[in-house]
Design goal:
This protein is α/β, with parallel strands linked by helices and 372 residues long. The chain has two domains: 3-119 and 362-368, Enolase-like, N-terminal domain (Enolase-like, domain 1), CATH 3.30.390; 123-350, Alpha-Beta Barrel (TIM Barrel), CATH 3.20.20. Helices cover 41% and strands 19% of the residues. The chain has helices at 54-57, 61-76, 84-94, 99-117, 121-124, 145-157, 171-185, 201-211, 228-237, 251-259, 270-273, 276-288, 302-313, 329-332, 363-368, and strands at residues 3-14, 21-23, 26-28, 30-40, 46-49, 133-135, 138-140, 162-166, 190-194, 216-220, 242-244, 265-268, 292-295, 344-345, 348-350. It has a seven-stranded parallel beta sheet. Strand 2 and strand 3 (26-28) form a beta hairpin. The longest helix has 19 residues, at 99-117.
Length: 372
């Protein structure tokens, strides 16, 4: 089987007003992502999605579309899409970084591989190592108190057991927000916090200590990227487990976190890490060091969310039972771009069991939301 063409369509879909995100990086109110279709001479197409965010990964919808169409596509036409390692090597040799763009093509190749075999992607990994139904945490923006009061009771009613609270802007306001969430959810549900690199090590330690009375169960990415020593300092001086996310895009990033003994958990997902195969390499490395992995999110649509689900249920060290992750991106958006959208009910997303990723893009809807 050979790749004959790679098609890329840039689309724009707003977030639902009540789900618009606020973090230390600013606001996320609309998603502009490229959708990818990899076509083959066997008549089997695969789909992918690049959930780019300029302020976070440095990639833009236009840059991702250009590198896919002008750099990767010419190199990959004629390649075997079922040889995922070769696909990755070709893209890595052609361009540094561009993790989300690479992941869109890589997940499309997994989709092709699964469709050709007549199996869901997780069966091409380690099989179902955990239930197909994945319970997720809810990622809540750094909302002001009134919005917190309007948001949290609904989350409790819908069955969420873990609320992730965005912090990293102001210690005073962050502590107030966490205290309010604890008041609203009661003592039996979990709170985790995510600073998105917003604190210095000193401020992260102070914030964590001030939040101890509210039983925070996890501190995600407290310190800036590349500051492995700073993250390790935080880990040594706080009582809650520490997760690295925004600073772990590659295998080498994960290795540095482990070498510095800076983390208890590593957050990975196909978009950020350049694909499913690379995520699994990181998860295996973390397992060797006794460190769990969980799944992060960049507010994906259905295709990338399906790839995340297959990674989670088909990879032993994706320990979402102990550390719930974020796989609810489609439910944050006003429009679904799949003919068979993922089943998302409250905190639970169900991994598709059809061949490949198990999701088909509704290209008519995608064209309707294409960026001119």
């Amino acid at each position: 089987m050979r790749i004959t063409r790679i098609v890329c369509l840039a689309c724009r879909i707003p977030l639902r007003p009540e789900r618009r995100m606020i973090s230390s990086l600013g606001q996320h109110v609309v998603s502009e992502y490229p959708l990818v279709r990899v076509e083959t001479d066997a008549g089997i197409d695969g789909v992918g999605e690049a959930t780019v965010t300029a302020v976070w990964s440095g990639e833009t919808v236009w840059g991702a579309q250009a590198v896919i169409e002008r750099v990767f596509a010419p190199l990959l036409v004629g390649a075997d899409p079922t040889d995922i390692g070769d696909i990755d090597r070709r893209m890595d040799a052609a361009a540094e970084g561009n993790w989300f763009a690479k992941s869109a093509i890589e997940m499309a190749c997994w989709d092709i591989l699964g469709k050709d075999a007549g199996k869901p992607v997780y069966d091409l990994l380690d099989g179902l190592v955990r239930p197909a139904e994945i319970a997720c945490r809810f990622s809540m923006g750094a909302y002001p108190p009134e919005r917190v009061r309007n948001t949290v009771p609904d989350l409790v009613a819908r069955g969420f057991q873990t609320i992730k609270v965005k912090v990293g802007q102001s210690i005073e306001r962050d502590v107030e927000r966490v205290a309010l969430v604890r008041e609203l959810i009661g003592p039996d549900r979990a709170i985790v916090i995510d600073a998105n690199c917003g604190y210095s090590p000193v401020d992260a330690i102070e914030a964590a200590r001030r939040m101890e009375p509210y039983a925070v169960g996890l501190f995600e990415q407290p310190t800036p990227r590349d500051d492995y020593e700073g993250l390790a300092e935080v880990r040594r001086n706080v009582s809650m487990p520490v997760m690295a996310d925004d600073m772990v895009f590659t295998f080498n990033h994960a290795r540095e976190c482990l070498r510095h003994e800076a983390v208890d958990i590593i957050s990975i997902y196909p978009g950020k890490c350049g694909g499913i195969r690379k995520c699994r390499n990181i998860a295996a490395l973390a397992a060797e060091h006794g460190v769990a992995c969980s799944i992060g999110s960049n507010l994906e649509w259905d295709v990338a969310t399906a790839a995340m689900c297959h990674l989670v249920v088909g990879t032993p060290n994706m320990q979402v039972e102990r550390v719930p992750g974020d796989i609810l991106g489609p439910a944050y958006h006003e429009v679904r771009i799949a003919t068979n959208p993922l089943n998302i009910t409250g905190p639970v997303v169900t991994t598709p069991d059809g061949p490949g990723l198990g999701v088909e893009v509704d290209w008519a809807v995608a064209e309707k939301h294409a960026i001119a």
